[in-house]
């Protein structure tokens, strides 16, 4: 948002390091010989060292153990007729002191606060800014009051006193790369007539009227005329002006009758209105782009132990994932934010959670969520610790929270504020008295700030919270790891009565082949190798890691011994592992989205990995989708068909229509034997109103008993695939879902094709592969380096086609499209593009046919 004075980024910085407290002031630093490296700002010490080839994940360094000095020289003409010149620091991590031309101008001990300093009297033609980010380790050794209870999330309990991120400081969760340095932009702001600062913009609804509130400061000399307008869409109103020292406070309240409402994209259009502030000072007019605003009403239904979000009076099943950061080496970066959020939106995700273990995200992040129609669950940056009630600490937190809520209140995507991550849970689990689970910080301070600056948005004191214990999933907000870390069967997702899971389904999700190669740094894949195991997430106090969790479900799903398989056929182990977590996740969401479910939403832990490896993310650290992403993509769509095993009641088919349009379609259920022979088939008309769900019994659609769930077991299993498809009146496929009574039988019965994969050129940036087979394909995967697929790890019905589109994943994608198709029940591979020749087995016989139709 262009709201500020004339502004220039200070980005020509140098970096040097010293031992802790060896250098106290700039003159001492200049007296010593130091090696200075170029340093990106915004950025971190790790980012600068990485660019210089001085650091990598393979050669870790404790960035909290040194002092880090940043230096920038800039020119400012002393004749510039500015009314004031200011240095704006977007965020300094973490214990920082700043000098300008040798004079101290700022001390900061909170990386989440921005600071503005009037430097007008200190400026000369050539200026020198010096920042020292002090080592945290000596500060952590300072004796302070002990916590009432301890956390295992971090090694240093005294981190609770320091307002910094836990990223890089949580063993087993993320790489040990603590962010140190000016991680947010630093700019020189020049106050002139016609400029604006301290802009506050908020929208809300009063019945059917949209209201925009705005206030700002306009610097100008005394005795001049000041006027202007606030414009939103086609409506405008004159500004009110209140003279103050150095200029005027301006404000306006604009009312818009019956505005188009902003919706999450799954339920409607995320309608936005352009906003602008026009200012006339002494006859000179300027227009300030105020971005885009939206109107929506958000509330949370909390009766009957539920937490149920409503947007514009409509219940919304929230699905998505927990956000990490775009780049852990530079957590303030936002270059890849749009691409990552676009993937989430295309997958049908409609909510992302910024958790208390990370950082407050950039303005770009929230703007993109506004545009894409993605709701934001916003935690304050507190997690799993007994935070102090010290007055100085609370003063810093109040300033931090006020800045953040004032910044975020203009975004219609921000739907929930939450006090912390797992503070109540941790206190309850270690046996602390109930009245100590929630401190005044989370019960009073933060909700008061939210009510003051962003009223009408739900506030939750902690995640999880509610119920007899905060972590019980059948009340309030929960973190559900019954399916996952606690090795419960998929049925536990239903049995536990999950109401709203802000975290769930953590698995060591295996990345695609490219990601595996990057993790192993050029060595052959071997999951016992330290290069692999160091990047498998784990809880610090546990004797197991999340690869052990995945192996448990691999054995249950495919009936194999994971230890034996990975030692004898690593490639097959990785292939089955990718699909294992994907199958489990999609089945859980089928349970939660069914009409019988009491669940109102669930967010997977994580959206994106923090570094290469088998991390929690459904995207790898470079933003490439994993198998679980594609399975969830099919389960999350606004119009979807889903299958659940109902035992003696057979398999139930659930049809969901979240959209604001009616659905008229044909539902088809097909039962296959040996992946090729249709032994039963049925169709039913499916008509649903907007935002409606319905359930169909498979036996009713098939009009006969076929024991599709194989619950009665009258003799041997007669089929291996149950497929449900939803087709629109135009015959186009809307959604497909599959249920297999025995995945082991399918993947063990590997066939040789024939399979066809035809490459077509769609346009300058998109290619399409059309897949068909004579037998059912299970978990078909198309690998094309440098491209992202619209679908992958999909099933293909015999005699039918599946079209998959590919677009480059960034500007470095290969110009020539070349890849291969595989499936878990297919012998060999199908080459796509390249020379177009068919694959062969060891004897040289063709096993599957690839063909190409080039432009």
Task: Provide structural commentary.
The protein has 855 residues and is α+β, with helices and mostly antiparallel strands. Among the domains are: 6-189, Sandwich (Jelly Rolls), CATH 2.60.120; 196-293, Immunoglobulins (Immunoglobulin-like, Sandwich), CATH 2.60.40.10; 380-468, no CATH class; 639-747, Immunoglobulins (Immunoglobulin-like), CATH 2.60.40.10; 750-852, Immunoglobulins (Immunoglobulin-like), CATH 2.60.40.10. Helices cover 18% and strands 33% of the residues. The protein is built from 17 helices and 47 strands. An eight-stranded parallel sheet has the order 26-25-24-23-22-29-28-27, covered by helices on one side. A six-stranded antiparallel sheet has the order 3-2-4-9-6-7, covered by helices on one side. Strand 35 and strand 36 (733-739) form a beta hairpin. Helix 6 (391-408) packs parallel to helix 8 (440-453). The longest helix has 24 residues, at 570-593. 51% of the residues are buried. Residues 835-848 and 851-855 have low confidence and may be disordered.
């Amino acid at each position: 948002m262009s709201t500020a004075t004339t502004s220039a980024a200070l980005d020509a910085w140098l970096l040097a390091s010293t031992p802790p407290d060896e250098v106290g002031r700039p003159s001492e630093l200049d007296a010593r010989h130091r090696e200075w490296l170029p340093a990106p700002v915004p950025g971190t010490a790790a980012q600068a060292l990485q660019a210089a080839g001085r650091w990598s994940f393979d050669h870790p360094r404790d960035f909290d153990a040194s002092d880090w000095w940043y230096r920038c020289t800039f020119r400012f003409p002393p004749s510039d007729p500015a009314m004031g010149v200011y240095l704006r620091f977007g965020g300094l991590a973490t214990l920082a002191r700043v000098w300008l031309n040798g004079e101290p101008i700022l001390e900061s001990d909170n990386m989440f606060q921005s600071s503005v300093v009037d430097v007008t009297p200190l400026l000369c033609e050539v200026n020198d800014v010096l920042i020292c980010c002090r080592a945290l380790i000596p500060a952590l050794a300072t004796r302070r009051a002990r916590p009432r209870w301890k956390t295992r999330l971090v090694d240093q309990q005294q981190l609770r006193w320091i307002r910094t991120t836990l990223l890089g400081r949580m063993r087993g969760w993320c790489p040990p790369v603590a962010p140190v340095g000016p991680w947010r932009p630093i700019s020189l702001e020049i106050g002139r007539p016609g400029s604006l600062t301290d802009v506050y913009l908020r929208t809300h609804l009063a019945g059917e009227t949209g209201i925009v509130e705005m206030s700002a400061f306009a610097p100008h000399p005394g005795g001049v005329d000041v006027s202007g307008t606030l414009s939103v869409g086609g409506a405008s109103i004159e500004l009110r002006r209140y003279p103050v020292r150095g200029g005027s406070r301006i404000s306006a309240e604009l009312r818009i009758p019956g505005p188009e409402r902003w919706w999450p994209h799954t339920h409607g259009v995320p309608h936005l209105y352009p906003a602008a502030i026009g200012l006339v000072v002494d006859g000179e007019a300027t227009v300030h782009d105020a971005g885009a605003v939206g109107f929506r009403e958000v509330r949370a239904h909390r009766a009957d132990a539920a937490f149920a979000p409503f947007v514009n009076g409509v219940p919304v099943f929230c699905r998505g994932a927990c956000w990490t950061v775009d780049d852990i080496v530079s957590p303030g970066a936002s270059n890849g934010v749009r691409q990552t959020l676009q993937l989430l939106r295309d997958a049908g995700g409609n909510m992302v959670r910024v958790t208390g273990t990370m950082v407050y995200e950039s303005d770009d992040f929230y703007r993109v969520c506004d545009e894409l129609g993605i709701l934001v669950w916003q935690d304050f940056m507190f997690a799993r610790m007994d935070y102090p009630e010290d007055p100085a600490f609370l003063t810093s937190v109040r300033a931090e929270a006020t800045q953040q809520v004032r910044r975020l209140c203009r975004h219609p995507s921000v739907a929930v504020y939450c006090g912390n991550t797992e503070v109540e849970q941790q206190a309850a689990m270690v046996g602390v008295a109930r009245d100590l689970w929630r401190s005044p910080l989370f019960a009073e301070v933060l909700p008061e700030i939210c009510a003051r600056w962003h009223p009408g948005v739900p506030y939750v004191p902690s995640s999880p919270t509610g119920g007899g214990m905060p972590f019980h999933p059948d009340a309030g907000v929960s973190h559900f790891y019954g399916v996952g870390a606690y090795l419960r069967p998929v049925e536990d997702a239903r049995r536990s009565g999950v109401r709203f899971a802000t975290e769930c389904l953590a698995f060591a999700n295996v990345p695609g082949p490219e990601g595996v190669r990057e993790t192993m740094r050029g060595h052959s894949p071997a999951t016992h190798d330290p290069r692999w195991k160091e990047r498998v997430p784990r809880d610090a106090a546990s004797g197991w890691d999340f690869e052990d969790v995945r192996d448990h479900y691999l054995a249950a799903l495919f009936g194999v011994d994971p230890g034996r398989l990975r030692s004898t056929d690593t490639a097959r182990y990785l292939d089955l592992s990718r699909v294992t977590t994907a199958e489990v996740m999609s089945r859980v969401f089928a349970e939660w989205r069914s009409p019988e479910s009491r669940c109102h939403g669930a967010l997977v832990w994580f959206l994106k990995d923090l570094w290469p490896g088998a991390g929690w993310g459904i995207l790898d650290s470079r933003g490439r989708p994993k198998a679980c992403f594609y399975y969830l993509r099919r389960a999350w769509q606004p119009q979807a068909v889903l299958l659940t095993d109902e035992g003696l009641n057979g398999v139930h088919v659930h049809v969901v229509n979240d959209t604001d349009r009616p659905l008229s379609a044909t539902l088809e259920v097909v039962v296959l034997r040996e992946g090729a022979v249709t032994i039963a088939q049925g169709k039913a008309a499916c008509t649903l109103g907007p935002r409606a769900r319905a359930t169909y019994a498979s036996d009713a659609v098939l009009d006969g008993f076929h024991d599709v769930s194989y619950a009665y077991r009258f003799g041997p299993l007669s089929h291996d695939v149950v497929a449900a498809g939803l087709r629109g009146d135009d015959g186009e496929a809307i959604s497909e879902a599959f249920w297999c009574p025995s995945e082991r039988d399918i993947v063990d019965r590997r066939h040789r094709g024939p399979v066809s994969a035809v490459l077509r050129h769609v346009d300058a940036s998109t290619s399409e592969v059309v897949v068909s087979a004579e037998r059912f394909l299970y978990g078909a995967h198309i690998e094309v380096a440098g491209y992202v697929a619209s679908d992958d790890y999909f099933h293909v019905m015999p005699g039918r086609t599946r079209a998959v589109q590919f677009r480059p994943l960034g500007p470095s994608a290969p110009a020539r499209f070349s890849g291969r198709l595989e499936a878990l029940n297919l012998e060999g591979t199908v080459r796509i593009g390249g020379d177009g020749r068919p694959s062969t087995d060891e004897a040289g016989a063709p096993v599957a046919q690839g063909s190409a139709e080039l432009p």
